[in-house]
Amino acid sequence: MKATAPLQLREAGQSLWLDNITRELLTSGTLKRYIDELSITGLTSNPTIFDHAITKSQAYDAAIRQHIRQGTSDEELFFALAIEDLTQAADLFRPVYDATDGVDGWVSLEVSPLLAYDTASTIAQAKELHARAGRPNLFIKIPGTKEGLPAIEEAIFAGVPINVTLLFSREHYVAAAEAFLRGIERRIKTGLKPDVGSVASVFISRWDSAVMSKVPEKLRDRLGIAIAQRTYKAYRQLLDTPRWERIYNAGARPQRLLWASTGTKDPKASDVLYIKALAAPFTVNTMPEGTLKALGDHGEIGRILPTDGGDCEAVLTEFAKAGINIDALAAQLQDEGAKSFVKSWNELMGVIASKSDALTKAG
């Protein structure tokens, strides 16, 4: 029998994670089925995902009522609900985590986006949330912004596993990798165990959405993939440097590259465009539920990403000729991403406040 596309990707060395979490996914057994049937080995979340989950569901109402009686603040209430969900998910993935010795089987919880430009508060919250969750296979997500990089280094040094989010370019990735490496090197220097898990999440589809109306048809849906190719080349080169090999010899593990924002936004394009194009060993691809189902139903994998970047530089030159400034756009996308997460966070707090008020009035 022919192997399914998810299984083929796993056999090629890529981990498939689900970019979604709801209480129904857990209680209905759907997440367990995805693990068993679609080779899912991890999960990511963000404020937008929880906003949708809580808005569209009554599954959280009993827990919200309980926290209302305890006088819990809106932000504390959110983290309580999120940790309840994510610890259950972490337990489902624990066999994968154990079988891979901590390489795979992770879930992710994000610090408050309101802290994106506050290094000290980000570090404090990252430590506190990881301790509260009490699961070794739970990443704390910290944005790879200029202000986030020192927090990433300090969190890694403190032994907190980190999912570096909101990376958009090779340069963003390299900066995040450097922060991870500095944290690990400091652990080694002070005699601490260096095996702290981390992934670096590079966002793909937002590139194509940003330029869709600005470039010729022949360049449609090609920018995100070219950026990914360029970043993958840098990733593989970094893994082979003497500096990184020294930390491996000391007992550290690589920070894996993760493809994020891989749901297709262009209605004219394949619904598995970014999954097929970004098959690559030593990486993770986290995808929306609809994309995962499409992959299992009719997906196929393309050729494995070349470690030399393939034709990415030629493609990026074409975009430059079309008037696209890649560096400026990367900075813009990261800034817009940070603002979008803040907007989603504020909306989420509004939803929780509104639900709390309605449930209080209903008794």
Write the SSE topology.
Elements: H1 5-11, E1 14-19, H2 23-27, H3 30-38, E2 40-44, H4 47-55, H5 61-69, H6 74-99, E3 107-110, H7 119-133, E4 138-143, H8 148-157, E5 162-167, H9 170-189, E6 198-203, H10 205-211, H11 223-239, H12 242-249, E7 256-260, H13 273-277, E8 283-287, H14 289-298, H15 312-321, H16 326-361
Parallel strand pairs: 1-2, 1-8, 3-4, 4-5, 5-6, 6-7, 7-8
Low-confidence stretches: none
Tell me the number of helical segments per DSSP (H or I, 4 or more residues long).
16
CA radius of gyration? 20 Å
Order of helices and strands: HEHHEHHHEHEHEHEHHHEHEHHH
Strand segment count: 8
Mean pLDDT: 94
Main sheet: strands, sense, barrel: 8 strands, parallel
> Helix amount, in percent?
55-70%
The outline comes out as globular
* Physical arrangement of strands within the biggest beta sheet: 2-1-8-7-6-5-4-3
First-residue to last-residue Cα separation: 56 Å
| Strand content range | 5-15%
- Assign the structural class, choosing from mainly alpha, mainly beta, alpha/beta, alpha+beta, or little secondary structure: alpha/beta
